[in-house]
Design goal:
The chain is built from six helices and 20 strands. By secondary structure, the protein is an alpha+beta fold. It is globular, with a radius of gyration of 20 Å.
């Protein structure tokens, strides 16, 4: 399958404002060791960029998991001569609500574009509802839309989308609406699909569990959709297996489902994430692809990242990272967005 990858997370470490970091892997199947002169590896799956916001202190960092370098995005914005990078700057804590991940996967001129994005939403945004471009008199419900411009993480501010919701019927019929109009259409189609997924998974959960976050690997989903549209038989199209539906509950449990003849069917028991008693704000949790084997989960209540994968067996909690070992002292991650395809975690016997 031919892809044009517009996410180039492995080059993020070349940005001008970078903090070098190293930390111990807290738990899991592997790790690093040595004497006092050894530089310990984080051990996170490579190929990811993790953006983290401390809302109260207006701090904004991104971690490149390949280079293991931490970038102060506010400082980067202040020092950059690129207006799109400058728009990363956070200036007002009152408008910071939650992240929406948007895997903007599409086919353009027979080239499959895998362009992962995230939006920083305002506090009044209701999860899984329409994202608005808005107008100058009534601005939209997001602060910035972030993705990679070549090798640089950059942002589009909400004012760039004023009026983008509107397009005359004549222009719609002719296919001549603005690019931002079509972008919002794709975004809100994804939001609607996500809302439907949450309903489907919530109904499959045990009665004593409340859904916090639902997730399907967007890379695998895109492959399924492209194979199905190519006219291949079901056996040919799905030789890589059924899509796993991940469910995080507000008690910190992970459940796993696949589509069956009668709807969603559980494929194994649940996994309990360490230290999670109750999630206070589900809109600030994150599930994202770590590799084709599993996912990376962010829980703000515990200030931890959890790797949940299966690598040939049942899904299990493989590793845990404490963000206090990654972020500067005194910084808290209230929300995290994760971009990238990831890479398989190294497993030790």
């Amino acid at each position: 399958m031919r892809y044009e990858f517009r996410q180039k997370t492995f080059l993020l470490g070349k940005l001008s404002t970078v903090l070098g970091i190293s930390a111990l892997l807290l738990s899991g199947c592997g790790g690093s060791g040595g004497d006092s002169d050894t530089e310990y590896s984080l051990g996170l799956p490579a190929g990811l960029t993790i953006a983290m916001v401390d809302v109260n202190n207006l701090e904004y960092y991104s971690l490149d998991t390949t280079t293991e370098e931490l970038t102060d995005l506010n400082a980067l914005a202040d020092e950059s001569g690129d207006s799109a990078v400058q728009k990363l700057r956070l200036t007002d804590t009152s408008v910071l609500g939650s992240f929406v991940h948007w895997p903007d996967f599409r086919v353009v001129n027979d080239v499959e574009m895998l362009d992962g994005k995230y939006l920083l939403m305002k506090p009044d945004y209701v999860p899984s509802t329409t994202v608005l471009g808005g107008t100058e008199e009534s601005p939209g419900n997001f602060v910035q839309l972030v993705h990679f411009h070549d090798t640089d993480l950059a942002a589009h501010s909400t004012d760039e989308f004023y009026g983008a919701d509107a397009c005359s019927q004549a222009d719609q019929d002719a296919g001549t609406c603005s690019g931002k109009y079509y972008g919002l259409q794709r975004l809100n189609s994804f939001v609607t699909e996500q809302a439907d997924l949450e309903i489907e998974i919530a109904e499959a959960l045990p009665e004593d569990q409340t859904l916090c976050r639902a997730y399907i690997d967007p890379y695998q989903k895109f492959e399924h959709e492209q194979e199905e549209s190519s006219g291949e038989t079901q056996e040919e199209a799905h030789d890589h297996g059924a899509l796993t539906h991940f469910a995080l509950t507000d008690t910190g449990r992970m459940y796993f489902y696949q589509e069956g003849e009668a709807g969603l069917e559980s494929i194994q028991g649940f996994v309990e994430l360490d230290g999670v008693n109750r999630v206070a704000d589900c809109s600030r949790t994150t599930i994202a692809r770590a590799s084709e084997d599993g996912v990376l989960v962010f829980i703000p209540d515990t200030q931890k990242l959890y790797l949940v994968d299966n690598h040939g067996a049942d899904f299990h909690q493989h590793s845990v990272w404490n963000l206090a070992e990654i972020l500067p002292e005194g910084t808290t991650a209230d929300m995290a967005a994760i971009l990238g395809e990831g890479a398989a975690h190294e497993h030790e016997e």
